[in-house]
Model the fold of this input.
Amino acid sequence: MPKGTGSTLMADPIARTSYRASTSLVEILDRVLDKGLIVAGDIKVSLADVELLTIRIRLMICSIDKAEQIGLDWWKYDPNLAVGRHEAMLKENATLKEQVRTLEQRMLALAPPKKSTARAKPRPRAAGKRGR
Done:
């Protein structure tokens, strides 16, 4: 049989090994996404028993379906990730600004007019006195 055909490829031990490895990698990835994986750890940097820095790492890897099952859906409301939500927030923001403008105009119309206070003209200074 010529090299490169299906039966020769499967007879090749290197090809069989890489096929098994890729299948098991897919199975592992499928299992991790289905069940979920949590990695947690703390990194502390201290000098002479004085803690200078603490980094807390919490990593969860799972599918979107699994995340929604356990109540995680923050990406739906993140304006950087949810394009439709971002546009809705911009529209709502514009509506609220217009409502504030309308309310301010109505308040100004209801407010009594301000009394104008005329400023007294400054008196001319006497020639012999210096002002400080």
Observations:
- The mean pLDDT is 77.
- Residues 83-110 form the longest helix (28 residues).
- The helical segments are 6-11, 13-35, 64-69, 83-110.
- Strands lie at 37-47, 50-61.
